[in-house]
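name: query_chain
kind: protein
chains: 1
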Amino acid sequence: MNNKTSLLTAATLALALGATSLSAQAAEPVGWYAGAGVGQSMIDEPLIDDEDTAFQVFGGYQFHPNFGVELGYTDFGEVDFDTAPGSLEADTVSLVAVGTLPFTERFSGYAKAGFHSWDAEARSAGLRADDDGTDPTYGLGLQYRFTDNVALRGEYSRFEMDDADVDVAQLQVRFDF
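structure:
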């Protein structure tokens, strides 16, 4: 066997092993999934600089190991006004596209972007005001897959609400069907 044939054989073997390892990393199962999360909602605006516990439930469909869509409901909790007695309570329903990048067979990163339809209620001195709207949302996360059906996710998301931004940092559990 000459050097040219050995080099070609080695290159072909390296490509085949590389393709195999790439497919081994793409371990995100295709199909339906659902989950829940809990974490911290944070708002840092001129009239409100506060945080509270946030809860989220979500479900989605993984079309491809690297792409899916997700529908979620998030309760941001209740935050207090800085300058006057009163509070703001908000929740939202979101629809996002999710792109997943596997790092290893069990560990991956993901990014999501889409829109959310929010509803907020402000209360101060016995008065109440409601507002709602539809705005962009986006986030980044890391996921560790314990089994083919259960994964733990850590996520940081931003929900724009007119001129205010609500950030949510949370831990989530994802169940695949």
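note: Residues 3-176 form a domain with the Porin fold (CATH 2.40.160.20).
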